[in-house]
Amino acid sequence: MKTQSSAMTATDLARAFDEARAAQISWNQTSFKNRRKLLLDYHDSVNENQAMLMDTLQRETGKSRNHAFEEITGSLAGIRYVANNLRRALSSHPAKPGIPFALKIKVDYSPVGVVGVVTPWNYPLALTMLDVIPALAAGNAVVQKADDKTIQTIIAARDLAEENGLPRGLWQVVHGDNEIIGNGLIDNCNYFAFTGSTQTGRKVAQRAAGRLIGYSMELGGKNPAIVLPGANLEKTAERLLASFIGNSGQLCVATERAYVPAAEMKAYVDLLGKKIESLKLGSSGVFDHDLGALISSDQISRVGGFLERARKGGSEVIGGAISGQTIQPSLVVGTDHKSEIATEEVFGPVLALIPYEDLDHAIEMANDTEYGLNASVFGDVGLATEVASKLQAGTVNINEGYRASMASLDAPMGGMKQSGVGRRNGIHGIRRFTEPRTIAINRGLVELPSRGSQYIKMAPLMGVISKVMKRV
User: Domain 10-219+423-434, what fold?
Assistant: First the structure.
């Protein structure tokens, strides 16, 4: 592995794919039992080494200790889920035959070969566990492109896996120029899993389509929250706060805009403003800060630019003080639903608060976006459930911003509209890295017709079969 500062070349990438393909041949022959044991041993090793992993995460990303810890717990849950559901996801199983008794149908799942994975800087460890681990568990090799900012976190995770029995060469970590390494990944893999911006996702889709390979993508979001009339003020404000300061707002599913009853707007602005003032910012090695720094000075400039333009546009910005690479969480009040701050993904701890008079209009505004990744509804569960069913988002949380769905790994996670293609998590999140194969057996009880005269004799029987099949 080259050092973080050295750029990898096309030759390095070709070598990584050669080693991965060689390692995958024997790995595919290992039993589900052995793969499960390896994964559970790996789980325990990650748990035992969580202090080291959190230190590395914080050093590379600037996260607070609590947000680094959340990433560890999410990673452990991801490994456990795959280990304990691998056999259920990938064991061969029967399917209903076209002709009962005469035919027998079985479906099995074959690994695609080598999976290309691109992991962004915001959740390098957790997203590795949600894409790389199921791909490996399904019998594949992986070539993973790490973001240059978070290489050491991913290398540490890979090294722990090899220390616990993963064959060397099976999980390759590469980094470098997107044109060489990123495009090269798509050009050489058998399936591609991407997490990143919608803009880049469109380019990925075009390149993958040129090779007719499968892919899944989690892309951008401009995630809405709807606060129902009469929702508990204190609980809703605290959960709204958590929904946009998590990982300092650098989270695809974070809430970025909230629609609040006009009559209750002042109460939410005042209470959220007080909560923001009470937050502690920093990235120490203990749990004494509520949120940490942004990933880079460029990201600080990006988020600060959104706030400055909102101010110039006449909106009130509460919070937003910048110190080094930390930025105080911000409320943007008095902005229009069509404004930049309410429509463009900020990817920072910023929440636009927008009043509404009519709940149907709030739902209409929530859906009025090209994105559809995550949404949330706060208030009475019965009414909130009705509202949730009308929101165009891959996940909808009730009385929670995003943590309820993120913690539930048996349920699919992904985006509608321009927020992604396919889903991770759940049984499908494992099966996406396979090619389903249908094996159909003629049991010899009925000879299927192949000549015209045989169809005449078969016609009455097929009529009976059709009537039976209506009830099967």
Answer: Aldehyde Dehydrogenase; Chain A, domain 1 (3.40.605)
